[in-house]
Design brief:
Layout lengths: L12 H14 L12 E4 L6 H10 L3 E6 L5 H7 L5 E5 L2 H6 L7 E6 L6 H14 L5 E7 L14 H9 L17 H23 L8 E12 L3 E11 L3 H7 L14 E3 L6 H8 L15 H10 L12
Parallel strand pairs: 1-2, 1-4, 2-3, 4-5, 6-8
Antiparallel strand pairs: 5-7, 6-7
Helix pairs in contact: 5-7
Length: 317
């Protein structure tokens, strides 16, 4: 049974915060190309939430939704909000290989599963080999750590990781002790950074003029949890002759932008509307002094994400 039959993805608070952060980040894409020149590729499911946001905010009219639950084609088409969304009923590895990479693309591969060797060898490979400079890549992965119970007899966490993504894709610097807690998300970031640089971009740049060589700048390294521990990694492809445009974009102005190994943890404190509004009155200054009767930890969590804090109401449309 597909997950969208069990979970309303529009109502997951941490995911909602992430979407708002990503939408704000992508407003800076205009420094690389006009928003209307971009194509967006993602998994629309039956909700098409990101599609709505990017079309409404930035006027992106070239959109592709990849769906692998072929039997729900009628439902996908019924829920598609705009005529500019093309539906491809294929597995993502097959769908992306058929895309004509002739324009800058925002790709968000929002998986529910852990990192797999097939993603590295297919979907990711296609994007980083073909996408033009100015394109954005994001992937969301299940980063729930393996438990002793989930492992086979005499199988270590490192063994399981190598089995899932291929031994050659696991850097020597990662060992079993790195894979506890949020270590799996950190390992994924290290693995993806390594394959992007060594396996994708190095061959692509071979024999290319220096000013045309493609680089990748990481922009997000999120960790969050609604019903499972997830991580989102991504950034932008650019050529050396786009360096000035990257500097003008000034992605660093956003506190959630992370270019290194640190995870930006999206935490959603469970507050009443009265509590949230009271804290808002003290922001953007430090809210700790505010007399809302909640812990300082919750106040600090809220301070980090208050501009993206979800508001869910019941209404008739």
């Amino acid at each position: 049974m597909p997950s969208y039959d069990d979970i309303n993805f529009r109502l997951r608070p941490a995911k909602s915060i992430e979407r708002k952060m990503m939408a704000e980040l992508l407003q800076k894409a205009v420094h690389l190309h006009p928003h209307q020149d971009y194509r967006y590729i993602g998994f629309g499911s039956i909700f098409f939430t990101e599609f709505r946001v990017l079309h409404q905010k930035y006027g992106i009219n070239d959109m592709v939704s990849i769906e692998r639950v072929f039997q729900d084609e009628e439902r996908f088409e019924f829920n598609s909000p705009y005529s500019c969304i093309d539906l491809i009923l294929k597995d993502s590895k097959d769908a992306l290989s058929e895309i004509d990479w002739d324009k800058p693309t925002i790709l968000w591969l929002d998986y529910e599963t852990c990192l797999q060797e097939s993603m590295i060898d297919n979907e990711f490979q296609v994007f980083f080999s073909e996408a033009p400079p100015g394109s954005f890549f994001f992937t969301t992965l299940n980063a729930v750590p393996d438990t002793d119970r989930s492992l086979e007899e005499d199988e270590s966490r490192l063994d399981r990781l190598k089995k899932e993504i291929g031994s050659d894709n696991v850097p020597d610097a990662i060992d079993d002790s790195d894979l506890f807690g949020n270590g799996k998300a950190k390992a994924y970031r290290k693995i993806l950074s390594n394959v992007i640089d060594s396996y994708y971009l190095r061959p692509r740049n071979k024999g290319v003029a220096e000013e045309d060589k493609i680089k990748f700048q990481q922009l997000v390294n999120f960790e969050y949890e609604d019903d499972a521990k997830m991580m989102t990694f991504g950034g932008v492809l650019y050529s050396k002759n786009m360096t000035d445009s990257i500097e003008k974009a000034n992605f660093e102005k956003f506190e959630f932008v992370e270019k290194g190994s640190d995870l930006f943890k999206i935490e959603n404190p469970n507050l009443t509307l009265v509590e949230a509004r009271s804290l808002d009155e003290a922001l953007p200054d430090e809210p700790i002094s505010n007399e809302v009767p909640i812990s300082d930890d919750k106040k600090e969590m809220y301070e980090k994400i208050y501009r993206y804090y979800p508001s869910f109401v019941e209404t008739e449309l």
